[in-house]
Design brief:
The chain is an all-alpha fold and about 240 residues long. Helices cover about 70% and strands about 0% of the residues. The chain has 11 helices and no strands. Helix 1 runs parallel beside helix 8 (about 165-190), helix 5 (about 90-105) runs antiparallel to helix 7 (about 150-160) and helix 8 (about 165-190) crosses helix 9. The protein is globular and about 60 Å long.
């Protein structure tokens, strides 16, 4: 059966990439992993074939590293949810309240100073190697940024309510791949992506607002058991969805 939470995880991952504290960092990550300067990335000439190849391979391995951490977090959240299954209703209310507050933060209603702090592991591995790029992704996956933290927390809370650890890992894999897929696309089309980003940078705050509205909606759905109701509605109206997954 297709669980609507997987679609939510994919959307949350995509929005996480396009938030003001992730997207502006992308050019610097691209330069770092390709081993080129920002001026080389911004000029009108083509990226050297060797650097382009390194860039794409490094981006793929970086994405796998980030997703690996998210999957492990999903498995842990599911296992924790199983342990405290008897308190599921109470924990769902607590989780919904936390997500609601996060949503208000992104909407600008309140501001939480803690969410402007970032904790991450620094990787000393060479990013232009396959192993180095993967380790760099692992380190980034441990980071908690103002944009990724709350969105990731919402998906982890959904994962905690799943009865199967594999499903929890799959949910976070969807989130991780959705968040890092645009990064790989940016590596494939680095120069056009940089020009596109320059033209559309002014719209980034609106993405943050959408993220806030989405978190508030998630909070309401979790508190009212709306996720299950919507899933049942989808099955009733589109019975073919039961054959997916």
């Amino acid at each position: 059966m297709l669980d609507i939470s997987f679609a939510g995880a994919a959307l949350a991952g995509l929005l996480s990439f396009f938030t003001p504290c992730i997207l502006p960092m992308v050019p610097f990550y691209l330069c770092y992993m390709a081993g080129i300067s920002m001026s080389e990335l911004q000029d009108d000439g083509d990226i050297a074939p060797g650097a382009q190849k390194r860039l794409v391979i490094s981006a793929v391995m970086f994405a796998l590293g980030v997703t690996t951490i998210f999957m492990l977090l999903g498995m842990g959240a599911t296992a924790l949810g199983q342990t405290f299954a008897q308190y599921k209703q109470v924990l769902s209310y607590v989780g919904a309240a936390i997500l609601f507050v996060f949503g208000l933060h992104f909407l600008g209603v309140i501001r939480i100073g803690l969410l402007y702090r970032e904790a991450r592991l620094e990787s000393t591995a060479e990013p232009t190697t396959i192993f180095g790029a993967y380790v760099m992704g692992l380190a980034f996956g441990f980071g908690w940024t103002p944009c990724v933290g709350p969105a990731l927390a919402s998906i982890l809370m959904i994962a905690s309510g799943m009865g199967d650890i594999g499903q929890g890992a799959l949910l976070l894999m969807v989130y991780g791949l959705s968040m890092t897929a645009p990064f790989i696309i940016a590596a494939l089309f680095a120069k056009p992506f940089l020009r596109w980003m320059g033209r559309n940078r002014k719209y980034l705050p609106y993405v943050e607002k959408v993220m806030g509205a989405m978190l508030v909606l998630f909070a309401i759905l979790i508190a009212t058991n709306g996720v299950n109701l919507i899933a049942q509605f989808m099955i009733d109206w589109f019975p073919g969805l039961t054959k997916v997954g």
